[in-house]
Design a protein that fits this description.
The structure is a single chain. The chain has 143 residues and is mostly helical. It has one domain. The chain contains seven helices and no strands. The radius of gyration is 17 Å and the shape is globular. The two termini are 19 Å apart.
Length: 143
Amino acid sequence: MRAFDRLASWSPLMLAALRVMTALLFIEHGTAKLFGFPADPNVANIPLFSLIGLAGILEVFGGFLILIGLCTRPVAFVLAGFMAVAYFMAHAPKSFFPLLNNGDAAILFCFIFLYLMVAGPGSWSIDSLKSPEPIVTTPTRHM
């Protein structure tokens, strides 16, 4: 197990990679709703001033803030709540099982955003540049 202990130094970089990839995937959902790209027939011609239009706005702008790591913790908190509401409004009524109701992405986004809210943005973020002290991402050990 000592070989894996050396990987701990990569934690801030992998946290940043998780943040960036999550943001890019999240933005893609928003651009499909707002701009029709990539084309998704399920969200074609969505009015901007609708609940799904609001979702697209949150996905694009919130995703962009997560991508660049600006105000990561409060934005992640809002987006986690947004994903929880989206799951229970749009997916859960279809089926109890996330695989069957297509809600697995909403659940994963929700929990990744909750993790980002607690862990912070990692390296490669505007938040880490603004912070006077380095952002600590290593948990303390409790015995």
